[in-house]
Amino acid sequence: MVRRKKQSKVSNVRHLITKLNPRSPITEQYKTIRTNLQFSSVDGDLKTMLVTSSGPSEGKSSTTANLAIVFAQQGKKVLLIDADMRKPTLHYTFRMDNRRGLSSVLVGESILEESASSSDVEGLDLLSCGPIPPNPSELLGSRAMENMIGRAKEEYDIILFDTPPVLAVTDAQILANICDGAVMVVRSNQTENDAAIKAKELLEVGNAKLLGVVLNDREQNKAHYYYYGN
Amino acid sequence: MEETISLKEIFEVLKKRLLLIVLLMVGAAGAAAIISFFILTPTYQSSTQFIVNQDTSETNSVDINQIRSNLEIINTYNDILTSNRILDQVIEELNLTISPSALSEKISVANSESSQVVKLSATDTDPDVAADIANTTIAIFQEDLPELMNVNNVSVLSEAVVPADPTPVNPKPMLNTAIALVIGAMIGVGLAFLFEYLDNTVKTEQDVEKTLELPVLGVISHIDEKDMMSMGKPVSISHKRERGSFSGQKKKTV
Questions:
Q1: Between β-strands B229-230 and B154-158, what pairing exists: parallel, antiparallel or unpaired?
Q2: Among candidate residues B46, B125, B210, the one with its CA nearest the CA of residue A197
Q3: pLDDT by residue (tens digit) across A206-227?
Q4: 3-class DSSP state for residue A214?
Q5: Could you tell me which InterPro entries the record lists for this protein (chain A) (predicted)?
Q6: Phi-psi region of B109 (alpha: psi -120 to 50; beta: other; left: phi over 0)
Q7: Which among A89, A82, A79, A90 has a CA at the least distance from the CA of A106?
Q8: Chain B interface mutation, best of A20, A37, A224, highest count of B Cβ atoms under 10 Å
């Protein structure tokens, strides 16, 4: 019970530490992930990547947003797409409008260039979820989605997807099939072993190229952790 | 899969649940102390000693047999002392309002090994009553004995007296508290390991690599308010907002 309360408090707060505090040790940890991601795709070009997790509130959205920022800080042109069309959060995180977004692009209401908006981080463009559609999985698996990704690939160096949890809905599996790579977020002290294994199996069924795991919310030894801090 | 637990891990588990263990210990000890001091009525004990004199002139047996018969006699006396015949008279004499079986629970007879001195102890919530029971019982026993066994070989060595400041024999608050402390610690440690066993969540990078067999791309440590400093300026993250609302507007769906 206590743990559950703690969770909900965490999930309501959007951390964008990489933007707020680019010199913090935690930002450095995101940069390490960025480096490892670049190393993990030596043979192929890693242009589209999705971030998911087994269950809700394990840190998908904040990890994706922070990763997008550190990629942008590297000088890349990044597009961050909120593909969680069930519980979108990107527009809260970046405090933007959600009247147009991924769903409106996929149903042909608007085009990518119109819907994507630039963020206050240089090189980072955002595509929020848009109006919540009744059929998110069908939209994600549609031809319109493939077309959109194709167009986005021409414009951007890297495209990041924030997705719903694997165990809850099939959306992440569908997207993982389309994307070049998938990253799974595992929250320390919350994600259960069995859930993580099940999520991995589901992603493998969806032909995902699992690049690795980000261990979130890990408690660190304080002395060690602040050694390189400011 | 074989699992080994190192000593270090055991200490880690105990350290993590130290608060639980300490709380359980303090709680149990406190409860025991409160119960011992305030709830349980103290009982007092009073003892009298009597000696069983074997009439050696009657028998010419060797010492070892005499000792054995002494022991047997003492056992017999024990039964007689706690028999209804004696206890009924004690109750009558002292005007007690309890049954003979209840009274027999208050009386205990013991002798030290191969000694002819027998100690009769009586316990009661009132120290005076305890002493009275002990003294009356032994007196009635002494009176009845010639009639019952045709011997008169019991003489009282010391009478039960009530000390000026009687201390209760039961409950023993310090002992109870100490026992509760130990039991609390044991339950705490047991619970700590139970919780640890039931907790099958991923914790460390090693857990991820072991269970998922996937590379760990990175580890994000816990982010707290102190980390969210923007150029030395604190940024409040304690502002809470519901997931469905954005700048005061409710979530809209199409």
A1: unpaired
A2: B210
A3: 888 899 999 998 886 554 545 4
A4: strand
A5: AAA_dom, Bact_polysacc_biosynth/exp, P-loop_NTPase, Wzc-like_C
A6: beta
A7: A82
A8: A20
In this prediction the ipTM stands at: 0.82
Gap from B199 CA to chain A (nearest CA, Å): 8
Strand partners, B233: B230
Cβ–Cβ < 8 Å for A214, A178: no
Residue B222: φ, ψ to 5°: -60, 130
Position A158: which residue type? I
Q: Indicate the pLDDT class of residue A67, thresholds 50, 70 and 90.
A: very high
Chain B neighbours among A 30-59 (CB < 8 Å)? 30, 32-33, 36-37, 40, 59
Contact B211 A193 (CB under 8 A): yes
Residue A10 has pLDDT above 50, yes or no: no
Task: Tell me the CA distances in angstroms from B13 to B2, B9, B186, B205, B233, one per residue in order.
Answer: 19, 6, 14, 18, 38
Res B45: pLDDT: 85
Q: What percent of chain A has pLDDT over 70?
A: 89
